[in-house]
């Protein structure tokens, strides 16, 4: 009877230990899952923060690029305007020179024409030159 009682106590102790072990295992498993969930949440949060930082940097870089492009475009347009202005000035200078040359040429032509009218005609040579051609008789 004592042996059976002893065996029964041992079985009950064994069962109690088994339940305690299972309970501890369940608690450990629950803690582990909770820890994994928190770790996953932390990683996700970190990734989101990094992604947001990258997006922000990308946007800032894009804005910087746009500003530089606008500055470059403005500079290019200013250069083009300056180039056109210089070309117009050169064209005006050429036109003015051409006009001055025409005016001078016209003046010289008028002077020559005036002088040609006032110039005495050469006398005809009476040494046998009909129609102004030389006959070789001198």
Automatic annotation (TrEMBL):
Region Disordered, residue ranges: 26-60, 76-138
Transmembrane segments: none
Pfam family name, one: CCDC34
Source taxon at top rank: Eukaryota
Ranges for domain Coiled-coil: 4-135
InterPro entries per UniProt: CCDC34, CCDC34/181
Feature: compositional bias, Basic and acidic residues: 26-38, 45-60, 76-110
Protein name: CCD34 protein
Species per Swiss-Prot/TrEMBL record: Climacteris rufus
Name of the coding gene: Ccdc34
